Predict the structure of Flagellar protein FliT.
Amino acid sequence: MSSRRDTQDAQDALLKAYAALLASVKHMHELAHQEQWAELIEQRTHYVLLVDELQQLDASITLDSIHSQQKADLLESILEHDVQMRQLLVERRDELGKLIGVSQRQRSLHRAYAPQQAPVGHSEAVEAPEEIPAHLDKLSGKRSL
């Protein structure tokens, strides 16, 4: 009888691990929806660890038909949330790509049209002459100061 109980406990533990993974992916999906990217990255590390643990546990346990169906339902929910979260991540990646493109164009324009800096050591300001040279005075119709 103990063997049957141990098998039941192992199957329940496996389903609890899948339920924990589902809770994790739901939380990550919500973080992506709220655009909380830094926290999402932190949670992703936890998610990967859960997946690794689950793979090891899953390899060592054979489920009966009832538990197999429950596992399939949990996996379906996990995958649905994962797909939705990935879609939000793709949208964010595309948005960041556009922002990077705009930033690069602005930098190129700034380099092309910004006033050129004088080389180091040549920063003395050029002062206007106090009087207009005679040959320019005739052209402008103004008199020297």
Summary: The chain is about 75% helix and 0% strand.
